[in-house]
Structure to design on (280 residues):
């Protein structure tokens, strides 16, 4: 399924009766729409399988991801969640969260010669969002700058398709095979290299938050590897802990260093991160 994005399935149209809709992203295996209706604004995610190509193996799990996320969001007690199946895969409906993501918000910090420092209040918003999830006993598994939406009232952590911590219906579940390598903790990379799979953990989420803050504030990845390195090579570098010599300014820099500790047990918990920030 390449080229034009899939249209909203009938079940979704029936559920929301859209008055307006806008395509947000259309990537291989996943399409997101922003939909307006008398029920308010919602994000609609559609998943379908990624076919095999010369460079990629087939990825059937992308078809299941929206239903899996829908089940997780309901499990977490969120309202206005619906999910189901359509002809090519699964879909979900969730509340739309307005605001820039962390990477976009901190663009001014990254511009050349900039003296704009990353705001502690923004960091705290991201930390709060992750702490809320951890407190419920879940690990996110795919923490990255694009998944923090900095709203006017609070920060939302989106994309819970890979989260672990409670029951997910068997028919929509699939193994965790790592995340974007820039944000992958060394133990996750090592496990994916060895077995093709890993277990998302709260410790790995803290590492991913550290890597997200670092790249958003400075433009640099936490670990050194060439931009065009194949994924296993990237994972080797992460597993070996080839940290880049780059720091965010001030006390935030120290805190990020601790979050990026090689051994999971050396990283602060998200509650310790919150405490350190509120005292600074
Ligand atoms: N609830 C939401 N509110 C606002 N924007 C959203 C919401 N859900 C998704 N988006 C937008 O759509 C983008 C993709 O969503 P999401 O990350 O959940 O999908 P994905 O298919 O898992 O993408 P990826 O493979 O990049 O992780 C987000 O980066 C964000 O811009
Ligand atoms: Mg995503």
């Amino acid at each position: 399924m390449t080229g034009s994005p899939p249209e909203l399935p009938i079940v979704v149209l029936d559920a929301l009766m859209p008055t307006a809709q806008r395509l947000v992203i259309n990537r291989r295996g996943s399409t997101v729409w922003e939909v307006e209706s008398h029920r308010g604004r919602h994000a609609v995610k559609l998943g379908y399988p990624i076919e095999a190509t010369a460079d990629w193996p087939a990825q059937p799990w992308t078809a299941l991801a929206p239903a899996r996320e829908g089940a997780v969001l309901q499990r977490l007690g969120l309202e206005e969640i619906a999910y189901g199946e359509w002809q090519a895969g699964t879909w979900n409906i969730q509340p739309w969260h307005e605001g820039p993501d962390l990477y976009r918000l901190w663009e001014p910090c990254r511009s050349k010669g900039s003296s704009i420092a990353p705001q502690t209040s923004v960091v705290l918003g991201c930390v709060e969002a992750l702490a809320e999830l951890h407190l419920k006993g879940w690990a996110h598994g795919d923490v990255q700058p694009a998944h923090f939406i900095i709203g006017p009232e609070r920060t939302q952590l989106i994309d819970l398709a890979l989260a672990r911590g409670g029951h997910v219906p068997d028919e929509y579940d699939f193994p965790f095979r790592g995340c974007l390598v820039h944000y992958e903790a060394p133990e996750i990379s090592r496990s994916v290299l060895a077995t093709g799979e890993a277990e998302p953990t709260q410790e790995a989420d803290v590492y991913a938050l550290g890597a997200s803050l670092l790249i958003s504030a400075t433009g640099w990845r936490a670990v050194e590897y060439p931009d065009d390195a194949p994924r296993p090579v990237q994972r080797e570098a992460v597993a070996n802990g080839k940290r880049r010599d780059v720091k965010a300014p001030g006390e935030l820099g120290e805190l990020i260093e601790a979050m990026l500790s090689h051994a999971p047990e050396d990283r602060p918990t998200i509650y310790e991160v919150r405490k350190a920030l509120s005292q600074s």
Remarks:
- The chain has two domains: 10-95, 102-279.
- The radius of gyration is 19 Å.
- Residues 10-95 form a domain with the Phosphorylase Kinase; domain 1 fold (CATH 3.30.200).
